[in-house]
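To: structure desk
From: M.T.
Subject: fold request, one chain
Message: Could you run this one when you get a chance? Sequence is below, nothing fancy, just the single chain.
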Amino acid sequence: MGQSWPKRLWLVRHGQSQGNVARDAADESGAHEIDIHMRDVDVPLSDLGLKQAAAAGRYFASLPPGDRPEIILSSPYVRARQTAELICKGGALAGGPAQTIIDERLREREFGIFDRLTTAGIRARFPEEAAHRQRLGKFYHRPPGGESWADVILRLRSVLNTINLQYCDRRVLVVCHQVVVLCMRYILDRLDEAEILDIDRQAEILNCGICAYDFDTSTDGLCVPVLEQWNHGAPLEEDGAPKTSAPDTMAGTR
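Reply: Done. Structure tokens follow.
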């Protein structure tokens, strides 16, 4: 039986959002709450984020037609949808403009009671929960009403099953969020908790940073993911758009 993976899989974090900007301002001022008054799902790109997304679109459009994405999937969150739409408008997809396929399983991690709080705010308002998170670690800690990284991984395994079923041997681009990119890497590289948290500590995922996987046949005849690019910022450098990497969250901790 042939392999059931896509031919190539790109993971792209959305461009800088207004939430990223507001979170940075809150942290710098020592505020307990991020000053943005909308649902996380509705937070749009910043002006810089729009430029970053357009730059990413031009990067993909510059690839040879046979190397460009054929399918684009996106988180339903506004900042991800805007990024995906600008990538499409830039001529990134082989065969010309195409509709972005929205998949709610690619959404940002849900923060529950931590939503819109900075790290200082979480410690001040929910000291027992903050201490519990410190003991358990962020991979498994689930804030009340929210998700752990492990919860996100469960839904992403389902996403990959769908991609393998519907887009086998196609070139697929996924636009999503920082934690989603990291959790996808956890699955595809078959990492453990310590390994993915170590990768997370090394650097923030760039806004519109690119991760790319190819799929090769191993010695035992199985098709396995091979990481070809990680947190690649070349599109932003080439277009002169500043690189940003604020945590992709509406809460003070990821």
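Reply (cont.): The radius of gyration is 18 Å. Let me know if you need anything else for the meeting.
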